[in-house]
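Weekly structure sync, notes
Attendees: PL (lead), two postdocs, one rotation student
Agenda item 3: pending single-chain targets
PL asked that the sequence for the first pending target be pasted directly into the notes so everyone works from the same version. It is reproduced below exactly as submitted, 397 residues in total.
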Amino acid sequence: MSLRQNAWFWASAAVVLVLGWQALTVHVNYGGNWTGLFCTGQHTRLPANLEAGTWRNSSPFGYDGQYYRLLAHDPFLLDGTAAFLDGPLVRSRRILVPLSAWILVAGRPGLIDGAYVLVIAAFAFGGVYWLSSILIRQDRHAAFGLLFLAVPATIISIDRMTIDVALGALTAAVAYQLISGRDRGPALWLTLAAAGLVRETGLLLALGCLLAAAYRRDYRKALLWSSAALPALCWFAYLQFHALPPSAVAQAVPKWLAPHHWQFGILSRALHPLPYPYTPGLLLLAHVFDWIALAATAAAAVMGLLRLRTTRSESLRAVLGLHAVLLFVLIQNFFWVTPFGYARPLAPLFVLLLVGDGRPAGYRALARAALVSMLVDLRLFTEIKAQVFGILHRFVG
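Predicted structure, written out during the meeting:
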């Protein structure tokens, strides 16, 4: 099989790139301690069994990956882990990646952190594999499946061990099954069910398939796809009524749901740039990168809406439409502070633009889809640059 049609080769190459980069930055920037990838903050409280071996970064509060690591060590919340989570109900709902790491090593504590890193790499493999497989069907080169690594949520997951690369990969899997006509077996149901366990927005994949089936008046399929939400709903019920204390459940109700807290999201963020503590020249440059990332994200939503006409699969059309509209539903201002936050729930949108169902066999549509991802990536790299400079200083300086 030629490299042009070998999705396995390019997916394997992606894993080499991901693990190679992580090994390099861990060696240079984290003193060889792989827990540095989880971005544990200076002020983050940890269980006693994890405290000694954890690398803490310079941030006071760290980032989300630190909490999913805790869940990987105690996925069923039997050892008091809920007390160490910043939002116990919201975090613990997103169980697929942490639970996968726990299952991979049968719950052995000393191996769970490494297993988590491998689970992230496995989803990167899957995302590239399924995107490459779609591109092969479109008579494009399989190597362009590596563009999955340019999706902002993928970069963030590789850098900070967040769970969103899994939703991006499962979106590519759903797209592949729908485009290739393999949506009649249990594989699609399992993929949709898994997406709902990655994070709550993963349920939009099942909802899209349900709406498309209902539109065709195929009510048997609509019932089938609606049942794909059951594993997530059962898990949510376990957390709410058994695993978490009432105080943790009450904290999960966001204040911005009240009408008087509604704001203008992406528009407010663009009109009111953050007051970074930089000199005037650097401050202007930081604002420009912010505006570029926000504009590219809005452009992705607009591109998604425009592609509804040409998307052949009704289910993909519904999923694409739901995620394009999602951008306009996320109206709270704090959500748009940084692309490390707002780009992650929109992972399926960026992936579906790369999928390009119904587009011509050339590369223009693929290039436009890659461009909006890369423009957001520019802003991400301004925060990853310290790692890059650390590596350059070690080997060049």
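Discussion points:
- The chain has one domain: 3-395.
- The first helix runs from residue 7 to 29.
Action: rotation student to compare against the earlier draft before next sync.
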